[in-house]
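Usage

Read records sequentially. Each one opens with the input sequence:
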Amino acid sequence: MSASRSSTLNEIITEAQHVEVILYLRNKELRLRQNTSNKPNIDGHDPTTLVSISTWTYNSSKNTSPTSTTQPNPTCYRCYETGHYAPNCPLNDSRRTFDSFDNNAEPLPPRPKNN
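and closes with the structure output:
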């Protein structure tokens, strides 16, 4: 990656996300091939290849982020845990509507991530 190719932080992040998706799909295809190479194919068709998997659309001319048909693991901005969003956070004592949300409340400090 050259500096002239990705000049802003957003472009670098977008490109890194795009590379991660490509690597994920390649690994997925490799696992699929390894799992199906030992098993006979019932319908006689080849396993799905990377070319036929189109889960991301990337439009660099509009400088937009890639969009995905699959959701990444969400991060809650209330408790900073992964697996849910803030409206569904287990720390919520009751479900609040946007109108009753206290805009002056301080967010929780970041917690160390569980590995």
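Summary fields computed downstream for this record:
- Residues 9-68 form one domain.
- Helices lie at 9-37.
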